[in-house]
Each structure stands twice: as structure tokens, then as C-alpha cells.
Amino acid sequence: MSRQAVSFHITEDTFICINCGRTAVPPRSGTRNRNHCPYCLTSRHVDLRPGDRRSGCRGSMEAIGVYVQANGEWSLIHRCTDCGIVKLNRIGPDDSERALLALAARPLTRLPFPLEALTCDTNEADHGDK
Ligand SMILES: [Zn+2]
Ligand SMILES: [Zn+2]
Question: In the beta sheet, which residues pair with residue 24?
Fold first, then answer.
């Protein structure tokens, strides 16, 4: 893959994703601080506090889950693959819905127990009622 010179001006909120290599531009509406890639949801460990860009880590922050607040607002749970810090970041208005859904559904696709066992438990409870 050849890297071409980027021909447009890169602002602080525009960056090239360290995971998928796509260029993330600031969303047109909503939060001004774009802190993760809208395509693969990967972030970068650049902040000590949100927006300050003062962390020296610069590690890749993998989206490991979704956190839903009481008001229904979604946040991404990011974990730095270098230092292991875990952070919450609000989702952006143009984040890939497919990527968000895949992330939210991930635990359901990898159950630590067989789904059949769960069905059997329900049946047994039904039998017990009669
Ligand atoms: Zn990406
Ligand atoms: Zn880090």
C-alpha cells in the first residue's frame, strides 16, 4: 500500500486512523472533538483529560464495548493496547452504525456458555410449574 501525500489541510480534529488507515474528518454536527475513527471506532491515546492532547502514550485505543447511559446515550469503551488504560468516549453522529452494532453484539456472538443450556433451564422451569 503506497502512502500518497495528503493534499488537503489537516486540522487538529482531522486524522488518519492508525488502525484502518482512513481519514477521519470532524463531524458536521454534534461533538466538535472527534476522538475516534467513525469507520472502525479505533481511537488514539493522546489525552490525559478529554481534549488536552497531553498524553505521551500515543497508543492505539481499541473499542472493546458499548456503554449505555440511563438517558439512552451510547458511549464507546476504549482500551489502550499500549498502556491498558480504559476510557469512555461518546459516540459521534457519523459513526458507522454497522461497526457500533457489531461491537454491541459481540458478547452475544461469543457466549461463555452454550445457548442450549439456557433454553433447557427455561423448559425445566416451565415443567416445574405444572
Ligand atoms: Zn479506523
Ligand atoms: Zn496508552
Answer: 15
Confidence grade of residue 122 (pLDDT, cut at 50, 70, 90): low
Summarised one tens digit per residue, pLDDT across range 52-93 is: 889 999 999 999 999 999 999 999 999 999 999 999 999 998
Q: Where are the domains of the chain?
A: 15-129
| Ligand located closest to 61 CA | 2
How far is the centre of ligand 2, averaged over its atoms, from the C-alpha of 59 (Å)?
5
DSSP three-state, residue 122: helix
Contact 77, 88 (CB under 8 A): yes
Please tell me the pTM assigned to this model.
Answer: 0.75
Amino acid identity for residue 126 in this structure: D
pLDDT band for position 7 (50/70/90)?
very low
Residues whose beta carbons lie less than 5 angstroms from ion ligand 2 = 45, 57, 59, 80, 82-83
Ligand nearest to the backbone CA of 55: 2
- Say how many Å lie between the CA of residue 60 and the centre of ligand 2: 7
Residue length, the chain? 130
Q: Which ligand gives the minimal distance to the CA of 18?
A: 1
